[in-house]
Amino acid sequence: MRTSSSYQHQRGMVLVICLIMLLLLTLTGLVAMQGSSLQEKMTSNSRDSEHAFLAAEAVLRDGEELIATSGATLTFAANGSNGLYDKMASGATATDWRDDTTIWRSGSAISGIADTPHYFVERLPEVINKGKSLEADTPLETTIIYRVTASAVGQTAHSRAVLQSTFRR
Fold first, then answer.
1. Beta strand ranges found along the chain (DSSP E)
2. What is the pTM of this model?
3. How far is CA 96 from CA 2, 119, 139, in A?
4. Residue 85 burial (CB < 10 Å; 0-12/13-18/19+)?
5. Dist CA 37 CA 52 (whole Å)
6. Longest Cα separation, the chain
7. Across the chain, what does the average pLDDT equal?
8. At 142, is the secondary structure helix, strand, or coil?
9. Tens of pLDDT along 24-38?
10. Stretch (H or E) spanning 13
11. How many CB atoms lie under 10 A from the CB of residue 51?
12. 117: closest CA among 61, 71, 43?
């Protein structure tokens, strides 16, 4: 008899325990989905940043190639007309890639990114190559140094990569 009475007192307890267990499983599933969603966003941002970096690196090489192939015939100006800045000219000002007035040159179009990458070139003061010649009548050699600044965005405009290289000719 006791067993019959004990079953009547426990009526519905199994249902309550099962509902609590189901609630715990549901919460565990929601936390796992939220973590997976966060990892997907991080992966997407990482891929976007990588695309921006690769595009900036490609357009940086475009600027270096421009200097290597036609550096002597390029016209540099203090105001940076056509994205070519002459830092040796009188009245030359500092060039900042964040400034809206900076004049850029367009690089090669790259598919899969949000905007065409661009760059500008600065011609820096000449450097004397000391120690090349010890002869009295031999003039010292000079080297022209250029600084190329490249900027590109990734698949979205939210990521940006800016790279600089120093190039001597």
1. 84-86, 105-106, 118-123, 127-128, 142-143, 145-153, 160-168
2. 0.73
3. 89, 12, 35
4. buried
5. 23
6. 125
7. 85
8. strand
9. 999 999 988 888 888
10. helix 13-70
11. 21
12. 61
End-to-end CA distance of the chain: 104
Residue written as tokens 């600084």?
Answer: 147
CA–CA dist 122, 102 (Å, integer): 12
d(CA 128, CA 96): 27
User: What are the pLDDT digits (tens) for 45-70?
Assistant: 999 999 999 999 999 999 999 999 98
Q: Rounded to whole angstroms, what are the CA distances from 122 to 23, 54, 153?
A: 64, 22, 22
DSSP helix/strand/coil, 95: coil
Q: Could you tell me whether strands 142-143 and 118-123 are parallel, antiparallel, or unpaired per DSSP bridges? A: unpaired
- Closest CA relative to residue 141, chosen from 129, 131, 159, 153: 129
> How many whole angstroms separate alpha carbon 119 and alpha carbon 112?
19
Predicted pLDDT at 109: 86
